[in-house]
Write a structure and sequence with these properties.
By secondary structure, the protein is of the alpha+beta class. 14% of the residues lie in helices and 31% in strands. It has 2 domains: 71 residues, Urease metallochaperone UreE, N-terminal domain (HSP40/DNAj peptide-binding domain); 66 residues, Alpha-Beta Plaits (2-Layer Sandwich). A hairpin with a 5-residue loop joins strand 3 and strand 4.
Length: 153
């Protein structure tokens, strides 16, 4: 028996009381969190149609659907990342300049690390530039993305 897709136009929030409801997870890649339209299946097999009405990004843990029996929660998949731990503000600037020239999204963590999705060419470039990049599996959160405008403190 096929069920109709659940249409999601916005996130309902985070940290909502799910009570005894069954929690189903919709996994997306980091670069899909700002998509306005997509169709995916949850881990439990429920088809979800994302048809956003706002211009924001989904965050890890957002509740997308809530009924008497079920909750659909968004999870951002982890991915291989290049992680740099700059020693100074000047080094942050240099790293971000070098990465920014490749037009790759840059993420800054609370631990003052610079993270980007893994790219072999970029990794080799950073190594040859005298930096000490590490490859680690991480979740790239949209709120950590550095933008030329609109960053929130």
């Amino acid at each position: 028996m096929l069920s109709e897709p659940i249409e999601v136009t916005h996130a309902l929030g985070k940290d909502l009381d799910t009570g005894q409801r069954n929690v189903d997870v919709l996994e997306v890649e980091w670069h899909e969190t700002a998509k306005s339209r997509m169709r995916r299946k949850t881990k439990g097999g429920q088809e979800v149609l994302i048809n956003r009405t706002d211009r924001g990004s989904f965050q890890d843990g957002d509740i997308l659907y809530l009924s008497d029996k079920r909750v659909i929660m968004l999870r951002i998949k982890s991915c291989d990342c290049i992680v740099l731990r700059p020693a100074s503000l000047q080094e942050v600037g240099t790293i971000c300049f070098e990465i920014g020239n490749k037009h790759v999204p840059i993420f800054m963590t609370e631990q003052e690390e610079v993270c980007v999705a893994y790219d072999g060419y970029l990794y080799q470039m950073l190594l040859s530039g005298g930096f000490a990049p590490a490859i680690e599996e991480r979740v790239l959160h949209p709120f950590q993305m550095v933008k030329a405008y609109g960053n929130m403190a």
